[in-house]
Amino acid sequence: MDFRDTMQKVYSWACQIGNLGLWIIWLLIHFAVDLWYFALHIACAIESYLISSGILKRYKALDIDKLRYLAIVIESEEAYHIPAVIQLLQWLVDIGVKHVCLYDAEGILKKSKESILGKLNNATLFEEAGESNLLLDHKHITLEFASFPDGKEAVAKAANLLFMKYVKLGGSGKIQEEKIFTEAHMSEALRAVGCKGPEPDLLLVYGPVRCHLGFPAWRIRYTEIVHMGRLKSMRYGSLLKAIYKFTMVRQNYGKSSFNYILLLQVVPHVLLKRYERTRDLDRKNESVT
Amino acid sequence: MEKAVGSMLSQIFENLVCLIRKFIFCVLSVAPLPNHIAFIMDGNRRYAKKRGLMEGVGHKVGFLALISMLRCCHELGVRYVTVYAFSIDNFKRSPKEVQSLMELMQEKIDDLIKEESIVNRFGLRIYFIGNLKLLSEPVRLAAEKAMLATAKNSKAVLCICVAYTSTNEIVNAVKESIEEKWDEFCVLNASGAGYGLIKLGGSEGDEREQLIKLIDIEKHLYMAVAPEPDIIIRTSGEIRLSNFLLWQSAVCYLYSPSVLWPEVGFHHFLWAILNFQRNHSYLYKKWKQQ
C-alpha cells in the first residue's frame, strides 16, 4: 500500500516537473519571438528614418493617384490621443492623399470629429464635399468617420429597409427575390441608411495586432490590409513606404476609372443629402406658416 | 542491402520528425490555442506557372498542402477549420479552367468520404458553405452526399467554402431573415392578431422599430455553424480578404506568409500559432467587448 502511495506521489511530481519544463520552454520560445520582433522594430525604425530623411530616393516618385480611397483603423484606446491622429492626417495631406476614412470601433474619433476638422485647415467632411471638390485641388483632404455600428448594425438597418420594400411588393415570389435580394440593392439600402462610403483600396491598421477590428464588412472585399504597429510609435517613413508599396503592386490598375467610380458612389449620396436638407427646410417653413 | 539501410534510416528520420512535432505541439498547448483557423488557399496557379507544370497540377499539389495543414490542426487540437476553395468570382475564369476545377473538386470530395480517408480518421464533420445552387449538378450532389456521410462525425469540423463570397452570404442571410419575418407576420395575420401589414408598409419614418434584428441576420449566415475564426491564413503574401469571412473576422489575427499555397509548411503554421498566442490577450479582450 505504502509502495503504491509513493509511486503515485512520484508520478504526480514527475507530471508537475514535466509541466513546469514545458512552461519554461514555452516562455523561452516566446522570448525568442519577442526578440525577433524587437529586432524587426529597430530595422523598421532605421528604414523609416532613411526614407523620411530622403536618402532612399525611390520613395520620392510616388504615383498617389492610384490610391483612391484610404482607410485608417485605429485601436480605440489609442484613438483618444487626438494630436497623434492629427499629425497622421497632416502627413497624409503632405503625401497627397485625397480621401480618408477614419475608423475606430468605439467611435472615439467620430465624437472628436469637430476638433479634428478644426485643427486641419484644409479638410472637409466626405459627406458634405460637393462635386466641385471631387476635382481635387492639391493639398485638400476629405474625411469620413466610421465606427463599429456602421458595419453590422447598418446591415440590420438596411435589412429593415429591404423588408419594407418586400412587404410593399407583397411578399414571396421568385420575381421579388430578384428585385430585392441582390448585392446592388443591398448597397443601395446601405447608402440610404447612410453607411455606404466607397471601398477603400488600402486599409492601414494602427494597433497592436493585424486585424481590422470590425471595419464595415461590406466595404473591404478586396481592400489591402496593412499593419502599421501602434499609433504612438507611428512614423512618417513607414507610412510612406506602405503607400508606396501599394501603388507599386497596383500598377496594372487603370487610372481612368478613378473619378468615375467615385462620382458614381458620391453623387447619389450628395443628392440624397441635399434632398433631405430641402425637405427639412420645407417642413420647417410649413410649421412656421 | 544499401536500399534496406536507406529505407530504415528514412524511417527513423520520419519517426524523429513526428516526435519533434508532437513535442512542439505539447509545448504550445500550455497556453491558449485557436479554436478556429481559416485558410485562403492562394497561389496554386502561380505555383504551376513558376515550376513550369501543367495547368491544374498546381491545384493537385495544393490539395496535398491542405491535407498537411489539416493534419497540423488535428494534432494541435483545433476544432474548426475553414478553407476557401472556390469563390463566386472564380466562375468568371475561363470555362475550361472552371470545368477542370469542378472535376478536381468532385474527385477530391469523393475521395474524402471514403472509409479510410483522413476525414474519417480524424472524425471530421464536413460542411459545404456557400450558395451551392451555383455549382454544377454532380458537384452539388457529391457535396450533399459528403455532408450527409460525415454528419455523425463529431471530433472536429471542416467548413469548405465553395461558391462563396462574404457579400453573397450577407445578402442571403438578410433574405432569409426577411422571409422568416414575413412568414411570421402572415401567420399572425391569419390568426387575426392584426399586425396591420399595410400600415407597416406605409410607415417609413426613421423612428420605426427594428423588426429585423442583427441577431436574426447572424443566425442565417452560412458560417453560423462555426464560431468566429481566430486566425485567417492567406498565402502568397497579400493581405486581402478577397470577400472571405468579412463579417466574422473583426477580431481575427490575419497572417500572410509570402509563400504560395502548395509551398506552405509546418513552420508557417507554427509561426501563425506563436503570433496568435502573443496577441491572444488583446484579441480576447476585444472579442469580449463586442
Automatic annotation (TrEMBL), chain A:
The keyword Electron transport does not apply. Signal peptide: none annotated. Gene3D superfamilies: Decaprenyl diphosphate synthase-like. GO terms for cellular component: dehydrodolichyl diphosphate synthase complex; endoplasmic reticulum membrane. Its cofactor is Mg(2+). Pathway: Protein modification; protein glycosylation. Keywords: Endoplasmic reticulum, Magnesium, Membrane, Transferase, Transmembrane, Transmembrane helix. It catalyses: n isopentenyl diphosphate + (2E,6E)-farnesyl diphosphate = a di-trans,poly-cis-polyprenyl diphosphate + n diphosphate. This is ditrans,polycis-polyprenyl diphosphate synthase [(2E,6E)-farnesyldiphosphate specific]. It comes from the Eukaryota. It comes from Citrus sinensis. It is an enzyme of class 2 (transferase). It is found in: Endoplasmic reticulum membrane. Its EC number is 2.5.1.87. Its main location: endoplasmic reticulum. PANTHER family: DEHYDRODOLICHYL DIPHOSPHATE SYNTHASE COMPLEX SUBUNIT NUS1. Belongs to the UPP synthase family. GO terms for molecular function: ditrans,polycis-polyprenyl diphosphate synthase [(2E,6E)-farnesyl diphosphate specific] activity.
UniProtKB/TrEMBL annotation, chain B:
Catalyzes cis-prenyl chain elongation to produce the polyprenyl backbone of dolichol, a glycosyl carrier-lipid required for the biosynthesis of several classes of glycoprotein. Belongs to the UPP synthase family. Transmembrane segments: none annotated. It comes from Citrus clementina (Clementine). This is Alkyl transferase. Its EC number is 2.5.1.-. Pathway: Protein modification; protein glycosylation. GO terms for molecular function: ditrans,polycis-polyprenyl diphosphate synthase [(2E,6E)-farnesyl diphosphate specific] activity. The keyword Transferase applies.
